[in-house]
Amino acid sequence: MRRRLYQSTLPIYFRHLFVLIFICAAAGTNLHAQALYKLNGSKDNVVKISGKSNVHDWTMMAQNPVCEANFRIISPEGGVPKNLVSLHFSVKAKNLKSESESMNNRTYKAIKADAYPEIDFKLREATVTPLQKNKFSVNVTGALTIAGVSKVITVEVNGEVDADNTIICTGQEKIMLTDYGIQPPSFMLGAMKVGNELTISFLLNFKK
Question: Is there a single domain that holds both residue 25 and residue 127?
């Protein structure tokens, strides 16, 4: 009786084992079909925050941004990634720099840099659209967090794959400071008032 029971369960065991091997193989294939890209660390990476005031326009640059992007394998036919699986961008709030130390300090106070030292963006979903050989666009939706407040935004990104498989991404997005609970700062005893709308523009170079 025990022998017959062992013989009857043996095929079930092998079926389960085959399913497990198939799942592991599929997962391994999926992992190899993706590649983790990071910023290449060069000065070619540019993240710029621009705004207006009642006196003049102003600009701040984000120094030493960090970004990791998980792209689906680059198609040999079109030379572009098939998808963007994940992306996480961050920069230290006090790495935003202008030409004015006074403006820097007032900005850090306005965005609560001591309490919330990181500004970051985390991808929720993305759609890649091939445009032509080695060029594509990505409709990116994710959560942008500033001063501890997160808002979902959608950004249209232009991408290009270079000869060495560097992926260059550019784009820009407008945000409102008050959406993040930030009161637009003022200077010179209120004589200069910063506008509520900011434009974030970027040029990022990714390498495996």
Answer: no
pLDDT tens per residue, range 156-182? 999 999 988 899 999 999 999 999 999
Please give the model's pTM, rounded to 2 decimal places.
Answer: 0.80
Residue labelled with tokens 């390498």: 207
Q: Are residues 3 and 88 in the same domain?
A: no
The vertex-163 CA angle with 162 and 168, nearest 5°, equals 10
Length of the chain: 208
Structural domain tally of the chain?
2
In whole angstroms, what is the distance from residue 78 CA to residue 24 CA?
Answer: 29
Rounded distance between C-alpha atoms, residue 36 and residue 70, angstroms? 4
Query: Where are the alpha helices (H) located in the chain, listed in sequence order?
Result: 2-32, 101-110
Range of the domain at 13: 1-32
Q: Is 23 helix (H, G, I), strand (E, B) or coil?
A: helix
In whole angstroms, what is the distance from residue 55 CA to residue 23 CA? 62
Q: Name the token pair of 135.
A: 């060029």
Q: Within 13 Å and on the Cβ side, how many CA atoms surround 44?
A: 13
Query: Of the candidates 22, 7, 38, which has an alpha carbon nearest to the alpha carbon of residue 204?
Result: 38
